[in-house]
Design goal:
The chain is mainly alpha-helical. 77% of the residues lie in helices and 0% in strands. The protein has 12 helices and no strands. It is rod-shaped, with a radius of gyration of 29 Å.
Length: 233
């Protein structure tokens, strides 16, 4: 049902003004569980709460839908965060080997084209620059340059398959780096939707709790059900 709830609420979530969106003040899974507990707790208080002005349809009947939407949005956010963390780990593992591979390729090209000043100048140009993006582009440039000048490479009995490997590595590493360094976690679409779903859920929780605490301010046994256990700790 969470996916259906999310689909039902998505357009409404996207329409929420940016200025009302708030990041979590407590663990999201705690908020979701408290919303579910609250929904059960208030069922016996319907008449009292409505007599104090609580809109039952908007805030109570809709609470499970808001909860489900938030649960699914949180799952999407966790998935994206996990994927980016895994990409970062993979990049840290693969990039040192890629730099070494690039340096070996440059050494190969310098030797193969030592008698071709025109091509050797191009090798020097490729070797200039620094950084991850430059290294990835170097692999592609070397592959293209080598394939355009096969005769010199054949003279040194070079394994031309290495040029294909360089091209493949360039594509693979570009994708990996994009996943690791792409849109930051703080600015991701998944996080934005999660925060919107959480804000929408908290709107209902706050309205219900505020009304309940007012209605049962003289009834400790009912009042306690409208207090957040997490915040009370």
């Amino acid at each position: 049902m969470s996916k259906e709830n999310f689909d039902t609420k998505l357009a409404e979530l996207e329409r929420l003004p940016q200025e009302v969106i708030k990041a979590p003040a407590q663990p999201v899974d705690v908020t979701i569980q408290e919303a579910e507990n609250l929904f059960i707790w208030i069922q016996d208080d319907k008449e009292v709460l409505m007599s104090k002005g609580l809109d039952w349809e908007i805030f109570v009947a809709d609470l499970p839908v808001r909860t489900g939407a938030c649960r699914y949005a949180q799952a999407l956010w966790v998935k994206e965060r996990y994927s980016q963390e895994e990409a970062t780990k993979s990049w840290k593992k693969e990039s040192p080997k890629a730099y070494e591979f690039r340096d070996d390729l440059l050494a190969d090209m310098r030797f193969a084209f030592r008698k071709r000043p025109d091509v050797l100048n191009r090798v020097r140009e490729i070797a200039n620059g620094e950084g991850n993006a430059d290294m990835i582009q170097d692999l592609m440039d070397i592959s293209v340059l080598g394939k355009a000048n096969v005769s010199e490479l054949e003279k040194i009995k070079y394994d031309l398959r290495v040029l294909d490997i360089a091209e493949q590595k360039s594509d693979k590493l570009a994708d990996l780096l994009a996943k690791a360094n792409g849109a930051s976690l703080d600015n991701s679409q998944a996080k934005d939707i999660r925060d919107r779903a959480l804000t929408h859920l908290n709107e209902a929780i706050d309205e219900i709790r505020d009304t309940g605490k007012y209605a049962f301010r003289k009834d400790p046994e009912r009042y306690k059900g409208y207090i957040s256990r997490y915040r009370r700790r």
